[in-house]
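User: Let's play a game. I give you a shape written as tokens, and you guess the letters that built it. Ready? Here's round one.
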């Protein structure tokens, strides 16, 4: 909403008071959009025409823009109200167009001279509406016309005309730009269709389209852009009529015959168009039958000019409405009988792959309401046939819903059976955008592809069809003539040769050992005798190898023994010193490594992931600059130290201990719990950025919101329930809990490893002492474990005679061995050699870490002091699945025996009751997943989980927000198929901060 500064407001009040003679206490002003509202009140209601006369004379001599802030947009109209003090509603209201002040003065003077209603009406006819002025194409009049609707929403409007040069060498054209400014960010769907309707209603000439720009006051960048198609309705009707659309033909003919007061109805049977002419208005049945000659003179030229596709002839009837028999009939041959190109129906053309015909049929399918399409421009369709895929883009002033269009298009394309098309990819976007808002794909036949498919680029306007095809680049082409089948046959042949070579080599080696023979050779000896000999040979070799190894190890120990007494006195201190130095060095190396990787910048330029041959390039590291919150100081070292010093026993989960230590430190520093607590598994730990969430909430009017991320790797509903109800005290709980996770955290059919580890810890036992209620839980391992004495008794009972013989043989062989007595020293030497080997592999390990795809790189990353784990890794499917196997939902243990009922559901119910009793708002966020992760099995489980959550959402204290399919193809927002990186966490945090359904706390 546009506001007036206090000093400027005082200037406006004084100006109105001086102009009308009303005391300043009786004048109030307010600016909304491009409208100025002036309220005049007194002990008696001010006289309407006298007040307006004084005010209009002052407006003639004053520029209102001088009285307002220089940053404010122009004022187009003024609303003047009059009322008596103490009353709620004004007695009169008058609208003044600032571009027609002279006509307003004339109207007011006539009203002052005459008291009759007739004179008032004649005066009112002098005012010309903004609509009639806007139809002339004046940008200022267009802005005034739009402000009549948008000012009520607090949106100010400006209009400009900018020339632009089309890309297809056409002459320069004008484009209409509408700039909308407001103090808030209105949703595009709120303004899109109203603006499109009002602009198209003007029937402007000279403009192909208009661009709507929405911007928040004070911001430099626009909030969103919208394209409105200004193609006249008559042109749209003729385009569809050209393709043989019956409804469009009837609408055109009705407009042509409107002067004759004739209505037209049309129908199509086979290839003949039947046109019925009836009186346009005949309630009593007395209107004459339409004249045949006049109707034919109007209809025939229109049909010949249209030349409808696939319609060979037309039969025209004249009759009264309701008559069964026509009064006159005439038959007409259409151009399709002469020109064979016009004789084929649009459906037959579409079956052959004709793109214009497919476009028309799809647009007709998606725009069943012709009036709505003419009013707003409707849903527009763009096609791109690439390889064996048909890409279909759907855009409209409001982005078409995926459920609204995807199923219709898929069913229609399946019915067509276009040759060479093995799959379709459907996209949806808001008109004017280049990138789609959503994707949908179906393979009509089995397809084989070597690389992931890239989303094609679609032109923002239908005029630039050439933009649909990417321009050629200078990148190398890897055998552009090579087909998928040739590549597959080549790989199969190489693999077959490799297997044959490896088999021959192994066979040759085994035959040389004399232990194996060819299958076709006759064995000269008894097979049993031959097997016994083989066993004796291998047994002897094993025994000799064991004795030799024992002798070598004994010699090594004997050589190291003389030096041991000399260093025995200093060994503890030196080893401790060495350990400390080593650890310090390692820590410094780790610090240097992580600091260097965090500061590493990608190259400035980035080409497409795919070159012209559709093979991945050698360097496919994503270098696109994405928005993210700045990296903060790492807190892992502090967390480890705090956890070690804590008097609270460990929970057998290191991350829980460290997160709890950081949370306790936050409480000790601030004295109060955070306003928002993020909790959940690793998807919460990496997926919601507390710093960005707090910053985004501040821009929404929630300043100084303290946020902490208590995410724990592997946390399930049971773990969350345990932390909230038994680890944290009620005084340590926040005002709102943001539970960020997904379906697998609620799978009651799988083994809950994290909770079992916690349940076996000393910290869990202490929680029992603090909360005796849960001691009866069947989940507690203490109820299932026996005492140490009972375990010893059981072990003694299980010792058998076989074990006694085995122990005696072990003792006898140990006395003969030269190395058994010194096995601890051998173990130490081996560990030392492995450490040296590991040090030599540091460079290779660091190189692997920089790839950003190894699990070690993720596990070694450190959380910040807000508990958030920021990962800069970007998920690249082509590279990721070279190092990680692709596990489908059938074999994913997280979804094993998937069911939402059970122990996890019971834990969730406990959390719901607990938060309700503590008056804490609980918001569950189903975190985003990639399309690579959501295979059919996981997608089915996700649907079950969403139904489960929607049932729970009826709880007044529980809010469910689903973001699981927000960015299924935005791989740059993910570190792996199911976890966000810090760029995705940034976007999720902004999305949550702008969510009106979440009751954020107000300080």
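Assistant: Ready! My guess for every position:
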């Amino acid at each position: 909403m546009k506001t007036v500064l206090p000093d400027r407001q005082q200037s406006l009040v004084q100006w109105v008071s001086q102009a009308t003679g009303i005391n300043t206490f009786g004048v109030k002003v307010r600016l909304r959009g491009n409208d100025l509202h002036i309220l005049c009140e007194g002990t008696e209601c001010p006289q309407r025409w006298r007040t307006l006369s004084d005010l209009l004379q002052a407006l003639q001599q004053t520029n209102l823009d001088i009285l307002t802030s220089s940053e404010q947009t122009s004022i187009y109209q003024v609303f003047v109200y009059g009322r008596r003090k103490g009353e709620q509603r004004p007695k009169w209201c008058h609208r003044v167009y600032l571009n027609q002040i002279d006509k307003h003065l004339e109207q007011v003077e006539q009203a002052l001279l005459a008291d009759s209603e007739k004179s008032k009406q004649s005066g009112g006819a002098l005012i010309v509406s903004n609509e009639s002025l806007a139809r002339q194409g004046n940008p200022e009049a267009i802005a005034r016309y739009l402000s009549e609707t948008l000012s009520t929403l607090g949106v100010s409007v400006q209009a400009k005309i900018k020339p632009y040069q089309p890309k297809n060498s056409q002459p320069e054209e004008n484009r209409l730009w509408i700039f909308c400014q407001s103090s808030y960010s209105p949703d595009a769907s709120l303004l899109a269709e109203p603006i499109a309707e009002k602009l198209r209603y003007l029937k402007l000439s000279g403009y192909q389209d208009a661009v709507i720009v929405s911007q928040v006051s004070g911001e430099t960048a626009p909030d969103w852009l919208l394209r409105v198609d200004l193609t006249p309705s008559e042109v749209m009707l003729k385009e569809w009529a050209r393709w043989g659309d019956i409804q469009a033909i009837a609408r055109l003919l009705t407009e042509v015959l409107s002067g004759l007061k004739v209505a037209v109805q049309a129908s199509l049977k086979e290839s003949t168009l039947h046109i019925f002419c009836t009186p346009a208005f005949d309630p009593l049945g007395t209107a004459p039958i339409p004249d045949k000659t006049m109707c034919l003179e109007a209809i025939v030229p229109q049909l010949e000019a249209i030349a409808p596709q696939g319609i060979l002839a037309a039969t025209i009837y004249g009759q009264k409405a309701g008559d069964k028999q026509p009064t006159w009939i005439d038959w007409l041959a259409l151009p399709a009988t002469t020109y064979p190109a016009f004789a084929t129906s649009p459906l037959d053309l579409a079956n052959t792959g004709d793109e214009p015909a497919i476009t028309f049929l799809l647009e007709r399918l998606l725009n069943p309401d012709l009036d709505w399409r003419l009013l707003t421009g409707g849903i527009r369709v763009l096609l791109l046939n690439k390889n064996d895929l048909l890409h279909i883009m759907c855009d409209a002033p409001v982005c078409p819903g995926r459920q609204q269009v995807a199923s219709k298009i898929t069913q229609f394309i399946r019915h067509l059976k276009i040759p060479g098309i093995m799959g379709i990819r459907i996209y949806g976007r808001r008109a004017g955008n280049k990138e789609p808002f959503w994707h949908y794909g179906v393979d009509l036949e089995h397809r084989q592809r070597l690389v992931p498919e890239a989303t094609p680029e679609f032109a923002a306007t239908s005029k630039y069809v050439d933009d649909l095809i990417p321009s050629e680049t200078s990148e190398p082409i890897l055998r552009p003539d090579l087909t998928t089948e040739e590549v597959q046959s080549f790989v199969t042949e190489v693999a077959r040769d490799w297997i044959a070579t490896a088999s021959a080599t192994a066979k040759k080696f085994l035959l040389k050992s004399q232990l194996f023979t060819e299958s076709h050779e006759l064995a000269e000896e008894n097979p049993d005798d031959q097997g016994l000999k083989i066993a004796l040979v291998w047994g002897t070799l094993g025994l000799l190898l064991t004795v030799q190894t024992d002798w070598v190890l004994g010699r090594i120990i004997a050589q190291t023994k003389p030096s041991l007494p000399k260093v025995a006195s200093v060994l503890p201190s030196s080893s401790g010193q060495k350990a400390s130095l080593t650890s310090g060095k390692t820590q410094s190396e780790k610090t240097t490594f992580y600091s260097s990787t965090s500061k590493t910048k990608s190259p400035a330029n980035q080409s497409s992931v795919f070159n012209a041959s559709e093979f991945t390039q050698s360097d496919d590291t994503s270098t696109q600059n994405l928005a993210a919150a700045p990296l903060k100081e790492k807190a892992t070292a502090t967390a480890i130290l705090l956890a070690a010093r804590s008097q609270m026993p460990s929970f057998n989960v290191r991350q829980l201990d460290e997160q709890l230590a950081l949370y306790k430190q936050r409480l000790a520093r601030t004295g109060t719990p955070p306003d928002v607590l993020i909790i959940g598994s690793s998807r919460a730990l990496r997926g919601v950025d507390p710093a960005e969430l707090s910053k985004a909430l501040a821009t929404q009017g929630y300043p100084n919101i303290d946020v902490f991320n208590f995410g724990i790797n592997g946390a399930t509903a049971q773990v969350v329930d345990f932390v909230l109800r038994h680890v944290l005290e009620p005084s340590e709980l926040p005002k709102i809990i943001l539970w960020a996770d997904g379906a697998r955290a609620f799978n009651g059919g799988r083994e809950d490893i994290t909770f079992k580890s916690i349940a076996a810890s000393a910290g869990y036992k202490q929680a029992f002492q603090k909360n005796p209620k849960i001691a009866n839980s069947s989940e507690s391992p203490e109820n299932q474990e026996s005492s140490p004495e009972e375990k010893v008794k059981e072990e003694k009972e299980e010792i058998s005679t076989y074990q006694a013989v085995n122990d005696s043989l072990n003792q006898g062989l140990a006395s003969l061995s030269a190395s058994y007595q010194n096995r601890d020293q051998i173990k130490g030497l081996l560990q030392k050699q492995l450490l040296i080997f590991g040090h030599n592999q540091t460079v290779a390990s660091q190189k692997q870490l920089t790839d950003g795809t190894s699990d070690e790189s993720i596990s070694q990353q450190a959380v910040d002091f807000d508990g958030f784990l920021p990962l800069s890794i970007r998920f690249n499917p082509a590279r990721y699945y070279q190092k990680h196997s692709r596990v489908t939902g059938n074999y994913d243990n997280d979804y094993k025996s998937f069911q939402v009922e059970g122990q996890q559901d019971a834990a969730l119910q406990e959390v719901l009751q607990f938060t309700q009793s503590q008056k804490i708002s609980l918001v569950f966020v189903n975190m985003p997943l990639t399309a690579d992760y959501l295979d059919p099995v996981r997608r089915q489980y996700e649907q079950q989980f969403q139904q489960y959550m929607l049932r729970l959402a009826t709880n007044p204290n529980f809010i469910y927000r689903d973001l699981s399919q927000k960015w299924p193809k935005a791989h740059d927002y993910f570190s792996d198929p199911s976890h966000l990186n810090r760029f995705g966490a940034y976007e999720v945090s902004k999305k949550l901060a702008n969510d009106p359904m979440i009751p954020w706390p107000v300080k």
